[in-house]
Amino acid sequence: MGADIIVKLKILTSDTNQAKMSLGHFSLVRLLETLIMPATRALTLYLGELDQPVITDYQIAIFLYRAYRDRKYKDISVKSTVSSLSKEILKKKIVQMCATGILTIHPNFTGNRVYSIMGKKGFDAGDIACAVDPFAYVSHLSAMAYHGLTNRIPSTLYISSPKSTLWRDFANQRMEKDLGNDLQDYLEHRLPKITRVAMTKIGKIPVSLHSSIHLGAFKLVRGRSIRVSTIGRTFLDMVRAPSICGGMRHCVEVYKEHGSMYKPLIIDELNQHGTQIEKSRVGYLMEEVVGVNDDPSLEVWAKHVQRGGSRKLDPSNEYEPVYSERWCISINVPDLGATHE
User: Looking at residue 58, what is its pLDDT?
Assistant: First the structure.
């Protein structure tokens, strides 16, 4: 019997004889059950506390591995007849949770690696995507909708995640952080690794995955598993990949309507992460569309513009012989180009 249990029983036995009699053997047993629980019950409590609608086999394995290793969950002892988690025990526990309906295999992901958690409400496809891929975040037109920058309702979920090589590096680093000195033991037990799970559809919503060499900039949302690109990064993405932000003409409209309000965030993002051509595009939009003419950062950007025949405002459209001398870019967006002719 653990020290915590002894202390609690001493408190109980210091009460009056009447209190002792009313407690009885049954209540003592119930007390002990609340202080020592099986691993399956600990997992159930853990799932209930998660702010996410789904869980991966890796997340389940990490929780159970720690529970068996430490023999406790929070301050409650975990009862077990084995000293460590094995692949077979993990599979058995997941089967038990599925049999009770607490977990359900998610139909949109192959390999039985993702499970829906019973009773989780108020989440959407973005929450699921970010719970399945720990390095993904909602971006582009989906992020624009989240931030209220567009009146369009995306029929596709746009998410960003690192390229494969970088993703694997992040996964290895996360496992080292999660397991520390126990990483080798965990791997020797053939327990699940962090693995990139293919996402093409969540529910009825198609998923469009965007990977690039650029590291993400996102915000966490309290009480949810979703991660969303910051407002500054969302504006930067509009000139990087306008085709998945509603098209360049729509991005121009968004800059015109919201660029003044978010000018500090846009300028700061470009100063930190923008390339020369991206600064030229945003500099042009801030001056000619938004009407900003007094920001010192724009002057610095303009002094360092690089000339080149392939420099275009819309990177996905054909070159047009309408040119901004100050920003050294082809104004290849209909209507905007007419103002320079």
Answer: 98
